[in-house]
Amino acid sequence: MSTINIGIPEDQRRAIADGLSRLLADTYTLYLTTHNFHWNVTGPMFNTLHLMFEGQYTELALAVDLVAERIRALGYPAPGTYSAYAKLTSIKEPDGVPSASDMIRQLVAGQETVVRTARSIFPVVDEAHDEPTADLLTQRMQIHEKNAWMLRSLLEN
User: Are the C-beta atoms of 87 and 43 separated by less than 8 Å?
Assistant: First the structure.
């Protein structure tokens, strides 16, 4: 591969790619969990949750591509296996099929985990003046914060 000269030193590109790899793993794990819950949700809110989960997992499916492509643009391979994601993710897989309300709680926690992971990458991104990654992180945080809010609102009495 030819030398990458985009104005970000290799050590910073590596640190950013490592952070984005954790974000990719969290995003993919949340995608898989959301898709699982879409298939398996039951109860009086079935239709509402089934449709909401579908919208969220569809958005997540597109997001993993954006994150992986940014890692590649920085010159590093994007992780793409279950075993790699299992090592990198901060999101715990669900056990069995939880109740609808527990699904919502777990998805809120997952959305918030992705936000924290994205936020944790900002120091090195800011230091490197990596505006494309900062823009990607900001967009991801906005989406996940909104999704967490919408899911939390379903738990209020």
Answer: no
| DSSP assignment of 22-66 | HHHHHHHHHHHHHHHHHHH--STTHHHHHHHHHHHHHHHHHHHHH
114: in domain: yes
- Evaluate whether 4 touches 102 at the Cβ level (below 8 Å): no
Tokens 């030193």, residue located: 9
Determine, yes or no, domain membership for 102.
yes
Question: What confidence score (pLDDT) does residue 157 get?
Answer: 74
Phi, psi of 88 (to 5 degrees): -95, -25
What is the residue range of 142's domain?
20-153
Domain count, the chain: 1
Do 48 and 146 contact (CB within 8 A), yes or no? Answer: no
Task: Centre a 10 Å sphere on the Cβ of residue 99 and count the other Cβ atoms it contains.
Answer: 11
pLDDT < 70 regions, the chain: 1-2
The radius of gyration computed from the CA coordinates of the chain, to the nearest angstrom, equals 17
